[in-house]
Structures are given as structure tokens and as C-alpha cells.
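Severity: low
Component: inverse-folding endpoint
Summary: output formatting inconsistent between runs
Steps to reproduce: submit the following C-alpha cells with default settings.
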């Protein structure tokens, strides 16, 4: 398993991703769009749209004139297209480095839970800024893997105790971008102006331990891809370790929280 890039993260099945993270990314996407407070009839680019959580939130709450939603993972893009049939949306197979342009520039270029997976976040911000019209905004939201995304923090801490090589894959260590300081640094290095950053916290409630654990067996995303690479005995030990780490609450409903960092910025009047 190679921890250096998204090829190792198993982006292979839209339904599996929905069960694992999509149900929470959709809640986050709605809060993210509300935080952005966008103007109606704006032209959007959703970068790394995945299964369409942010695109759906834009269509439902932002009254867009158009949304171009792109992702290089065909399986996720197909799932998104199947889930959301809206004439304002154009689905495009594309990733960072080859993003589609708009004839007069986008009003908003946004990504939700994607920026940290791009090979070079600074260059990604730079590219996204270049696609804006004057006065447009770039925006992103990422999980606080190091501290505030409790589900994944519990998982990776348990994984490291069971299998030490998990330390290299721990998203809290792998993605130093995912905090206020890292985001501000990446955005300013990419040429952004008027950078604004704020935390967004959502509840993540599981009916029982099975509801929490089963999505980790789906193979899609960094943590499920790690689980898929384990032997049966290792998976059983990890399941037991994770269950024990949740203590007494593992016998019934498990109420955790997930914190994300949201950032928005402009390109400035002299960037192009």
C-alpha cells in the first residue's frame, strides 16, 4: 500500500463511499454552502465533486445559474451523475491540473473534502484562482483529521496500535494542511487575497458499533482501503481494538462529532 497519493486510497465505488463518508460529507456540504452565503445566479465549479455532496448542496441552497462538477474518479462521478439529475449541472471527468474553464470566469470555485488529496494544494489553489472572474471566490472545506474528526481519529489511533505501519497512513499525520494554519499558508502561497477561515462542526451519530464499523469494510477511501489490505486476523483485531477504544458507548448509540475547516478567498485585482 502506497501512502503517497490518492491512487492508494481506493476511490472505486460510489455506494461504498456514501455509506462510509458521504452521509457526513452531505451534512457538511450544506453547512459549508450556508457559511459561504453565495449570491444567487452564480456560476460554480465543484472541484473533486466525488459522489456529489457539494454539488447537491449548491443546487438546493445556492440558486446557481450553473454548476460544473468534476472529478478524476470515474466511479464516483458516475455515482454523482446517477444521484443528481439537475439541468444546471454539467459533469466532467477532470482533476486538479486540468480543470475546465468558464468563458467569463466562475463566480465560485469550491471543493469539499478534496483539497488535501491534490498532489500540490498550493498549485491547486493557484489554478482555481486563475479560473475566477474578477470578484470571484475560491473556497474549500477539509476535515480536521488531526484532532476534530473523531471517527477517523479513533480509527487510526486503533489501527496504529494493531498494525504499526498504519502510522504512515494516519490522516492526522498525512495531511498537515487540514487545520487553520495549513489552509491559510496554502491559500496565501497560491496567491489568494482576503483569506477567511472558520471551523464548522457537525454531529456524527451511529446507531450502534456495527453502523460505525461496517462502512470501513467497503474499500473506498483511505481508511477502508487500509482495512481491505489487512488479513482477516488483523481486521478482527482492529475491530476489537476500535470497539474497546469507544468504551461503554459501543453497546448502543455512538455520538461523535466531526470538525471541518472552511476557507474562502479572492484572487485580488492584479492576479491576471
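Observed output (run 2 of 3):
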Amino acid at each position: 500500500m502506497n501512502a503517497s497519493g490518492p491512487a492508494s486510497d481506493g476511490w472505486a465505488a460510489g455506494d461504498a463511499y456514501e455509506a462510509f463518508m458521504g452521509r457526513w460529507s452531505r451534512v457538511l456540504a450544506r453547512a459549508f454552502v450556508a457559511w459561504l452565503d453565495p449570491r444567487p445566479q452564480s456560476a460554480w465549479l465543484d472541484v473533486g465533486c466525488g459522489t456529489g455532496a457539494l454539488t447537491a448542496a449548491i443546487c438546493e441552497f445556492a440558486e446557481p445559474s450553473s454548476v460544473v462538477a468534476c472529478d478524476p474518479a470515474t466511479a464516483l462521478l458516475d455515482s454523482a451523475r446517477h444521484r443528481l439529475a439537475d439541468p444546471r449541472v454539467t459533469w466532467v471527468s477532470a482533476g486538479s491540473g486540468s480543470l475546465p474553464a468558464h468563458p467569463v470566469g466562475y463566480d465560485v470555485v469550491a471543493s469539499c473534502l478534496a483539497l488535501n488529496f491534490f498532489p500540490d494544494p498550493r498549485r491547486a489553489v493557484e489554478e482555481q484562482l486563475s479560473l475566477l472572474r474578477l470578484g470571484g471566490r475560491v473556497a474549500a472545506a477539509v476535515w480536521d483529521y488531526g484532532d476534530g474528526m473523531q471517527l477517523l481519529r479513533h480509527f487510526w489511533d486503533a489501527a496504529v496500535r494493531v498494525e504499526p505501519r498504519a502510522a504512515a497512513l494516519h490522516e492526522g499525520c498525512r495531511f498537515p494542511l487540514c487545520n487553520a494554519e495549513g489552509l491559510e499558508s496554502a491559500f496565501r502561497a497560491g496567491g489568494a487575497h482576503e483569506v477567511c477561515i472558520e471551523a464548522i462542526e457537525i454531529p456524527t451519530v451511529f446507531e450502534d458499533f456495527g453502523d460505525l464499523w461496517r462502512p470501513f469494510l467497503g474499500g473506498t477511501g483511505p481508511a477502508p482501503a487500509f482495512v481491505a489490505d489487512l488479513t482477516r486476523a488483523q481486521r478482527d483485531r482492529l475491530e476489537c481494538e476500535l470497539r474497546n477504544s469507544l468504551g461503554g458507548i459501543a453497546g448502543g448509540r455512538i455520538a461523535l462529532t466531526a470538525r471541518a475547516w472552511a476557507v474562502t478567498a479572492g484572487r485580488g485585482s492584479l492576479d491576471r
